[in-house]
Automatic annotation (TrEMBL):
<feature type="coiled-coil region">
    <location>
        <begin position="214"/>
        <end position="264"/>
    </location>
</feature>
<keyword id="KW-0175">Coiled coil</keyword>
<protein>
    <recommendedName>
        <fullName>DNA primase</fullName>
    </recommendedName>
</protein>
């Protein structure tokens, strides 16, 4: 069973194939029914992957950092995952450390640029945000699994919403880190990175241009907040929230730039 699930998790992870695996090996009948009845969402996919991870006996750290093969790539066995964990442990200082410290050491090994003096400050800030988002995701994910059958829908929705938002935040930051590691430039898809890049550009613009940027950002904040009132689906809601955050940050950056110019 474990080899079969690990082979799946090491590949492109088609959603329907994952459901079939859980149908065969999973124990939670309610989850099986939920997967069968509903179309794929970020929350359901995250739930499915987490359940398969536990069935395969893969640690959270190994799962987050496991190698993924392309469709036609050679199979990655569970042994390679274990070896990967051992190698990660060997990079740590040879003194007793807590599991939290071990995870940080492994993380730093994966993204060595974080130790460099020329690492952008915004990435260092996002790392802290990512750990917070991941912890909240795990916490609320467990809460979802422990909800009684007669739970109020509003309560379940609130927990599910928090779970999805923190999962997407964690993945978004992870993508930024991997892109910077591989390309040595910022990707800019995460709202905070996008604003950081925009702030660098603001310093080269005239007062009038910065004021127009502030006005445009304020308009977009209003537009996306209105969309939030009618948007349907957790994924679309998360996108709208990200847009609000992006434009609010942009507006704040423009206001800060104008304020700094007044002082100077």
């Amino acid at each position: 069973m474990k080899e079969k699930i690990i082979a799946y998790l090491s590949g492109p992870r088609p959603y329907r194939e994952g459901i079939a695996l859980y149908e065969e090996y999973g124990l939670n009948l309610m989850l099986k029914a939920t997967f069968r009845r509903n179309t794929e969402t970020d929350l359901l996919r995250a739930t499915l992957m987490e359940e398969l991870r536990k069935l395969a006996g893969i640690s959270e750290t190994a799962f987050r950092t496991m190698q993924r093969k392309a469709v036609d790539s050679p199979h990655i066995s569970s042994a390679s995952i274990v070896v990967g964990e051992i190698k990660a442990e060997e990079t740590a200082v040879n003194v007793p450390v807590t599991p939290v410290v071990e995870n940080v050491i492994r993380f730093r090994d994966r993204f060595p640029f974080l130790n460099s003096p020329d690492c952008p400050d915004v990435l260092k800030i996002l790392v802290a945000d990512m750990f917070t988002a991941y912890d909240l995701y795990l916490k609320t994910f467990r809460e979802l699994g422990e909800l009684p059958d007669d739970v109020e829908l509003e309560q379940a929705f609130a927990i599910a919403k928090t779970t999805v938002e923190n999962y997407l935040e964690d993945r978004s930051i992870w993508e930024e880190l991997e892109y910077y590691r591989d390309n040595h430039v910022l990707l800019g898809k995460h709202p905070r990175i996008a604003v950081s890049l925009a702030s660098d550009e603001l310093s080269n613009k005239s007062d009038l241009e910065v004021m127009n940027i502030r006005k445009n950002a304020a308009s977009n904040v209003s537009k996306w907040k209105k969309k939030l009132e009618t948007v349907e689906g957790e994924e679309e809601r998360a996108k709208a929230l990200a847009a609000v955050d992006k434009w609010e940050s942009m507006k704040s950056a423009a206001e800060k730039e104008l304020e700094n110019r007044k002082k100077n």
